[in-house]
Automatic annotation (TrEMBL):
Assigned keywords, A-Z: Signal
Entry protein name: LamG domain-containing protein
Organism field: Kribbella koreensis
Annotated InterPro entries: TAT_signal (IPR006311)
Signal peptide interval: 1-27
Keyword flag Nucleotide-binding: no
Keyword check for Glycoprotein: no
Amino acid sequence: MTKRFRALGAAVAVTAALTLAAPSAFAEVEPGGWTSYSPSFSEQERGCGQISGLTFQLTCSTGSGDQRAERRYATYSSGSRQFEGYFKITSMSGGTRISLKQTFNESAAGPFFMLAVESGGRLYRVGAGTVANGATVGTTVRVNTVHVVGSTHKTYINGSLKQTISSPGGSFYDKFGSYRTDSGKGPITVQWSGVNFWRK
């Protein structure tokens, strides 16, 4: 084999390895026609809630009051919106029934969709049933929500569609972090990563 062909073969091998190692630039579910965007956000720390970067903590075991550490994103009122994020619960000793992701209905002054976790790792929609299992301490879980205002709201866990519900019209916004539900308590530490938004 000539030096030229050996060099060409090595270059192809390197290119193939890099292609396999590189993550997809478009990890969203329901691909096709989405445009990436970066909505503005504010941070909410109340009660024993603490935020450090993308780490959200409830440091107390209080079973009452407003205990939250969340990011609240900009309001939208039309079209299709997709949220994607990865969370890992790093500590939940004694904590349970904590909301991790919300789609908030600003028009109705209340949460339209709340994805919460119990101490055993069950993910559920607050006020409804189980969405998925396996959100145990130390496990990374991917969450996608696809919201078509006035039509549907879909929840995907690790890329698999788990729930579809009807959506009214109105104004909505996304939130994620850690938030004590009415029946929940801390402590909990949640690390989020890979947060992306798309619209069409």
